[in-house]
Request: fold
Amino acid sequence: MGIFHLLLVLSTLSCTLVTGFVLTFSIVVMPGFSKLNDRDFIRSFQVTDGVIQRRQPIFLFVWLSSFLSVFSLMLWALTNNEFAEVWLVLVSGALYLLGVQGLTVTVHLPLNRRMQKLNVIELDPQTLHTERVYFEARWNFYNNVRTLLAFLSSITLLGVTALH
Reply:
């Protein structure tokens, strides 16, 4: 197995795992949290996100390896464009790096940090509601976008894998 095939397999596997993670938030976690009152919604998100923020090792490994493997695959494809599917690798990588990693850094992490700073014990019901509404709509919208782009990237990588 050459470098290209190794990077392709690692990228496909790690991107697909991340896709499953963000999909789970879209179809299970956030819909479940949405049934809670404002205080419990915020606290549940804080606890769940706190697991990730405390650098859960398996999550961190999968998330970082997806970034590194896709970035490496794109670099390899740019410098060794000896195969017809180089454009698919570049499109898939751009979708993933900009759409998944980019949205995470520019949208989700700032929203998550904002939620982590809230003291649900001290806040009045109106402030809790305002914070929840601000957070929930944005977070869910961009997570759905991130999930779609992750899925498209994974499908494209699977297609390139099938061709090789």
Remarks:
- The helical segments are 3-33, 38-53, 57-79, 86-116, 125-163.
